[in-house]
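User: Quick sanity check before I run a bigger batch. Here is a single chain. Can you write out its predicted 3D structure?
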Amino acid sequence: MIERKYRRKRRRRYRAVVIDGKKIFRTTLFLAATGIMIGVIVSAFGGGIKTSPEPAPPPETDAAEIAAEADNAETESAGVEDAESTADRLKRLAALALGFDPFVPSGAVAAEVRGAEIVNSYGIIADKDAPAATPEPTAEPTPEPETGESADRPDIKPINAAQNARYDDYRIRIGNETSYGIDINEMLAAPLTFDMSGEGPKVLIVHTHATEAYAPEGAQQYSRGESDRSMETSENVVAVGDEAARILNERGIETLHDTALHDYPSFNGSYADALESTEQYLSDYPSIRMVLDIHRDSVVYDDGTMAKVVTEINGKKAAQLMFVVGTDENGLYNPDWRENMKLALKLQEKIDERYPDLMRYVNLRKNRFNGHTTRGSLIIEVGTSGNSLGEAKYGIELAVECIADFLNGLR
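Assistant: Done. Predicted structure follows.
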């Protein structure tokens, strides 16, 4: 178990992004050498490749003839396939060794700019047929900009950010920020590639941005003069993680909780620090199947209004939640991100069956967010900086009850 203790309560803002230019230059040289090596190998294996294209079969050729021609061509193309598979293997090994895809231009930069993986959505995530929520227009004249104390304390606006808030139907929707296509029904129908059988811990809860905190209970305004981060684990998302771990363990899902403040003292290095701890846990406990990275989102309107995503369930206010899934589109090594997406969709469906207004859109992102560590790695955004800690705890309680039931069905 990894423990990090901080005795003093401190509040701090983080802004700097540090880029190591020399390291990027060295990496670029290494990539150039790797590319040359792969090119030489591919050329050596593919020396006998024909450059003239084969004529296409006539339209009247039936399927059997096409299949026969394909079988005859299989032996002739064996050398080509060997060369291609060798190149693919080398690319995969290079990506695994470097931690990013050397054939994606942004990969080296993404690997160096640690602070670039900021998960906060800063808005309501919506798909192409659901416009993002914005403050309702008003016919009243626009007031003059406020100054002084009132300008530093914008209103907190409660909003319903449920994925189906604008529709009569209840179906899963994706806020897809990538170029990848997702077939929701196909993923829901496909089995997961892990189960929950065997002994030992099965779930690890971490907090890459552990100092993310919440508004005071009952607050109507948000104080800009104070940081929305706290070193005190009874006030930040670590407290939400405690609640999630408690429920999972009570329901028979052995769960570990890493309470380290990975975003302190360096916010830029938070994902690298969280990855180091996660890999240590996975080494110590190879039985772990899922890694849940619990965050708190931030939704701010153009006029400075701070939104809190909230619904009422059983007469009590609950912060709404959002699954975030990272991919490899920005170049970092993450070959199994579709397995993570599959899990997110299945959990979303399970929660929707019981609490149809609890979940926001499933958010698919270009960054990796350490999703490569397991085939069950997800980020969970619990409320926003406008929500109270009590609302966040209740929201995670309801969601994790459903998650535990789902995981128990995988035994």
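Residues 21-45 form the longest helix (25 residues).

User: Great, the batch can go ahead then.
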